[in-house]
Write a structure and sequence with these properties.
homodimer, 459 residues, Aminopeptidase, 2 domains, eight-stranded mixed beta sheet, 14 helices, elongated
């Protein structure tokens, strides 16, 4: 009996070791294809330079739909198709104008309307400014805010190692600032750009209105201009300072758009689905290189690498280009809705929407058993220093899947976060700020994880 | 007896835990100072933008000596001084000219003389070109190389995760190529730039001659031009291809220069020294931002952070700006020579010379006991994801210390390597390509390690 146990243990060990050798060799091949003959970089160049900014509902968003569909068709994926989805259609219109007035002196500053904001009155707004760091300070000011522009100027907390935590700690000013200011009678809102650095690029982003609360125009101000404005307000002459701004944005009727999906059909259990995705839309100010051209081209690259290696997954692998992550999440919602409606079986979904930087790891959302299971593969990722497999959020587009498809494991791709908010939602989010090797290593890391999930499940 | 043992064990545990809490709090403070009120970025900006390229023996190198001395004096370090060292003095002279000729067609290409090379004849060289990947291929060609220009075109192997391994696998073409080609009668050498990317910046770097072998001019060619030249040579018309190049460099008599040293004197054992350093010289084509302005400003920042925190190290901590790492290593040799001559006691030395990118870890050179000792601090670095504490090389400037000061532990700072060779030794190594947070995290990681070594020793 003891002998048999030992024998079976020995057998178990040897097969485990054998499997590991095979897996480590497979990962090596995946990384080699990505690094030696990767396509993600040249695809990203096309998306950024030939198409460019692609806000939901825009002509460029439609171009991006058609282009990504064609790319996947040309790669010969088993099935490439579109999912119809109605998306918000907001347009910036003519470029914003803003200046600080100090008596007869005007200082031009750079702002950008927040996505979803209304325009200013046709002649612009001129008003005194109150600076606050947060909603508590605002509420203390009460009625004195009336008729003024509220200037939210809470910077990122630089102490967070993960810059997404700094973002989380500041972004409610952008999302909810207009509502909170309007409740007290403010006529406009100016929000410090959501970034670590001091420069002159305003960073746009989504904002919300609330039923029953007056809609007031809201704009992001560059951090350099925010520092200047704050300094002026605190100067002896602070009470004489006024701000002028004019923005010309509008919300048009919802537009028809699409999620774009490419599949490699599973060789054993084709009804079981593993999703890997990013979002195809971007803000209008930038090329949407890191946000989220990298996620899109990496997701396509995962399937392309599998084909290049003639690897036939057991389950169906889907690359999904979600539409409308930035200002509505309609694509993510539609994907989940159809998954539920069609009674699809989903094993896992992985999103890359934190930029195309050096891969550091993966975050597993709300699933301790998946975290434990996936953590067992850490040694396989060691040669590529993808070491941080931790509990955490996955991706905005994946959120709706949680309720729609119970049991699905949601995973976020986690690249190094230090540079992301330098360029996030700003005109500096361009192809030139993406490093080829970092992008390729990310694609390889994602492909490796999908390969392992396909073979061993996600939990 | 047993009870006493348990009691002492409990005491030991509690003090260990307490020490860890204190240490983790101290590291948190170090990172906070670096991230919230760091000076490394603005110091780097000065070094890059107000001084710029600073090859050994140049006026700018002298300016960098004076500037870094003054910076450390202004910070009020306990002692700031210079170490005299004679350095090579090589000058590029007028910009190189090079073109491919194909019949009557001339295609201008970008090259840069390698550091230490002789000039071409005054009228330039025109010759046929033989392309080789390595010295074996060259030797097989034998006499047929005579009178020709040898074109070394072995690219980086993209499969290495650590780009320094790709560099190691390619750099002998640059260092030794002229000697090997001259032995067979070649009249010049053109070497593919040492980089992963394809662009039009030639990357210079050091090369050697050998006594008894004819000196022939040697230059780096941009990777884009290398691809073009290779393609031309392989085309049907390949035998008609010639290359023209002219370079105007010269080696002047050795010049007087300096290592620049700042110290915080140890409060308990001031005769025991811990060194942290980078090199002050750079190649002439670039601002030397990542190579090695970042190492210089980070090393100064380590001491500045200690002062800002009013932390008094037990041992003397020295920030050393080595002179002449790039083309002679004379500063490193001098530092070791004087350490030996003065019978100094050195605990450890840490060099930052792999760029100012996100810190990934430290490499410990030839000391298993130090590796084991320092690895025990891994959990303290976990919040900052500085996880790779491994055996490996330290830094070129530290090498001479190994024999000069037996027992010293040599350590290399290891940032993420993906972007380094994009800009290494090229005109693109500028301040704008350094990320503030990445730089600051590096300085904090270095300060944290020095703090721990000061407290617990290096092995």
């Amino acid at each position: 009996m003891k002998f048999l146990k030992l024998l079976s243990l020995a057998f178990l060990c040897s097969t485990t070791v054998a499997a590991q050798v095979t897996d480590s060799m497979m990962l090596r091949q995946i990384y080699d294809v990505a690094l030696m003959e990767g396509h993600s970089y040249k695809n990203l160049e096309h998306l950024c330079k030939q198409i460019g900014p692609r806000l939901s509902g825009s002509k460029n968003a439609q171009k991006a739909v058609e282009w990504s569909k064609k790319v996947m068709e040309d790669y010969g994926f088993d099935k490439v198709y579109l999912q119809e989805v109605m998306v918000p259609h907001w347009e910036r219109g003519a470029k914003e104008v803003a200046y600080i007035t100090e008596g007869s002196t005007k200082i031009l500053i750079r702002i950008a309307a927040l996505g979803g904001s209304i325009a200013s009155p046709v002649g612009g707004i001129t008003a005194k400014v109150v600076e606050v760091k947060n909603f508590e300070e605002l509420r203390v000011m009460g009625e004195s805010v009336k008729g003024k522009i509220v200037f939210f100027n809470r910077p990122f907390d630089a102490r967070f190692f993960d810059t997404f935590e700094a973002y989380s700690g500041a972004v409610n000013q952008r999302g909810q600032g207009a509502v909170e200011a309007a409740k007290l009678g403010a006529v406009g809102v100016i929000v410090r750009s959501m970034t670590n650095i001091i420069d002159d690029n305003p960073h746009t982003g989504g904002m919300r209105y609330q039923e029953g609360v007056t809609k007031i125009p809201a704009a992001a101000i560059s951090t350099k201009a925010a520092e200047l404005l704050s300094q002026k307000l605190r100067s002896g002459n602070g009470s004489a300072i006024k701000l002028y701004f004019k923005q010309n944005c509008q919300t048009l009727p919802d537009a028809l758009s699409y999620n774009v999906i490419g599949e490699i059909r599973g060789s054993v259990t084709p009804d079981n689905i593993i999703t890997v995705g990013g979002h195809l839309d971007s803000w209008d100010l930038a090329e949407g290189a890191h946000d989220d051209g990298t996620g899109v081209t990496q997701s396509i690259e995962v399937l392309r690498i599998f084909k290049a290696l003639k690897f036939k997954p057991q389950n169906t692998i889907r690359a999904v280009m979600f539409m409308n992550e930035e200002n509505g999440l309609r694509g993510g919602a539609k994907y989940a809705e159809l998954a539920k409606q069609n009674n699809e079986k989903h094993i896992a979904a992985l999103e890359s929407d934190e930029g195309g930087f050096t891969p550091r790891g993966f975050t597993i959302e709300d699933s301790p058993s998946a975290l434990a299971h996936i953590s067992k593969w850490k040694s396989l990722f060691e040669p590529y220093k993808v070491s941080d497999i931790e509990a955490g959020g996955s991706g905005s587009d994946l959120g709706p899947l949680k309720n729609a498809v119970p049991g699905i494991v949601l995973i976020g791709f986690k690249p190094d976060s230090q540079r992301y908010f330098d360029i996030h939602h700003a005109s500096s989010d361009v192809f030139e700020n993406v490093n080829k090797r970092e992008l390729e290593l990310g694609a390889a890391s994602m492909a490796s994880l999908i390969y392992l999930i396909d073979k061993y499940g996600a939990k």
